[in-house]
Every structure is written in structure tokens, then in C-alpha cells.
Amino acid sequence: MFCEVLDHSDIKHGSCNEFFYPYESELSSSSIDFSLKQTQSLKNDLLVVLVPGIFGECLIKEVPPFEKAIEVVAERLGVRTITLNKISGRASSEYNAKIIAQAIQNISIENNEKIVLVGYSKGVTDSLVYLNNQLSSDSKSKKISAFVSITGVVNGTIIADKVGGVGDKIASALPLDDCPTKDQSGIPSLSVKQRMNWMENHPETFQTSIPMFTVASAATPPKMSAIFVPFETILNKNAGPNDGQVNVVNQMLPSSYFLGVLHADHWAVILPFSDKENSDLTFLNKIVRKMATRNEFPREVLLESIIRTVDLKI
Fold this sequence. Notes:
- By secondary structure, the chain is of the alpha/beta class.
- It has a single domain (2-309), classed as Alpha/Beta hydrolase fold, catalytic domain (Rossmann fold).
- The protein has helices spanning 2-7, 24-28, 56-59, 67-77, 93-105, 122-135, 158-172, 192-201, 229-239, 283-291, 299-313, and strands at residues 46-51, 80-83, 114-120, 144-150, 212-218, 257-263.
- The protein has a six-stranded parallel β-sheet.
- The relative contact order is 0.18.
């Protein structure tokens, strides 16, 4: 699907395979029976609700996830999109799950739209807690038709185990007025210890009728931004291929459709630092942008191919 959409785009590229991590099985997998020429429109009316990652609240005004891509793809496919910009950038998943629940409950559904919940990074963790909470909530709650994880911290990341509460305390001292500190549990809630414990205690989350989809990412050194190089070394020793923040094995949603491993680091797949001029950013984000040295990725193609694939499965 990705290759088909890429071929119909204006993006100059070589082989489609360059955008996928060079696993042998990844590059030899068969394509689905689909032709963009035959199937231009979607079969469902979709509402795509995007849940950003950790510190997302701090970035969302300057570097929104999928920024330009989400507008272009929404218009092209005729889908409605909402980014939950009130998710706390520095809070636990339990805290953010309540915000997600309220936000979705407040959404007005148009034309029998089906809600596709898309989580990015810690947004996946927050969304899983939300989905689990909905299992025991009243029947008036709006139904989610599909859930997509993009580079999700599903089973945690050893980086959070090593940094833990110290990282949250350091982060809380940063002058990030747009994302105030909440319960100082944002980073610890991403630890392998906490996430694996949660997964083991909530298997019912993955036994529902809601179809789930996994999009993972991993980067070889030429594709890894400078900011992630030290983390990549730690993660590679821990469990092999990773995107500079999470090992591939820890990005996998149980019982999900596995869509592939993108050849990109943790930011490149969704955060468009490369589209920004330094003059458009505040001081801290200027520093971050300079360290996002491998940020180019066809995010527009990625988003469209995800939406089209999900649409065929629900």
C-alpha cells in the first residue's frame, strides 16, 4: 500500500524499500491486492483522532504531528481529522486516558463516521489505558472502530527504566510553559517494568473486537538523528533494532495487524522538524531541531497508506 501511494505521489525516490527497515522478511513480503487507480475513495466515512506522544503538548504549537501531511491527506481522502492537543506532555498514561475519554465523548459524529484512534509513541500507551477503561464504562461511550499504533511504547523502553523519575524532575525544571508538569509520572510510566506489568494485568485490552494495527520504526546509523545516537547504542545492546527511543520488539501490539517497520528514527516518522525554519521556533525547539539531523520522511505517504489500509480492514 505504501509503495502504491508513493508511486502516485510527487515525491522523488528510488526504491520503495528504502523507507522500510532492511529486515530480509520485511523487504520480501508480498503486497496486498490493491490498485490505487481502481480504488480512489474510501469505503467508510472516517474520523481520525490522533493522540500525540510525550512532551507533545510542548511541541504541538510549533511542530504538530503530521502537520502538513494531515491536512493534505484529509482533503484527498475526504476524512475528518482531530489532534488531541490537550493531552498532557508530562503526565502518566492514567492521567491522559481520562483526557482522551472526555475529548472523544465531546466529539460530534458526522455522517456515520467511524472513529480511528491513532497513537504516537507515548500516545499509544495513553490510548491503551483509555481503551481498557472503556471496557468497563457505560454503553453511552463512543465506539472506537480501529486503533493504530505508530512507534508505540507498548512494552516500555529501557531508556525510561534508566532515567525514570530523575528524567521527569529534570524535565519539570525546563521552562516549558505550554506543558506544565502534572503528576511527574510521564517518563516512569514508559518503563519496561511498568508497561510489562500493565500488559500482564490487562490482557482483555487485546481481546476485544476492535481491530488494532502496528506500525514500528527502526533506524540504521545513516538514518539516525544525532540526538538519538547515544540511546541507539544502549537500546541495540538491550534488544537489537530500534528507532533511538524504543526497540522494535517493544513496539508490537499483541493480536494486531503488523503493517511494517519503517526505516526512520522515532521523530522522523511523524514530527516534521525538517519542515521548520529555526526562525519559526522558540529557543528550546531550535536546539532540538538542530539535533534532528535525519528528519526527512514521506509522512504524507505514510499517513495515507495507513488510513487506506485500515479502511479496507474495518
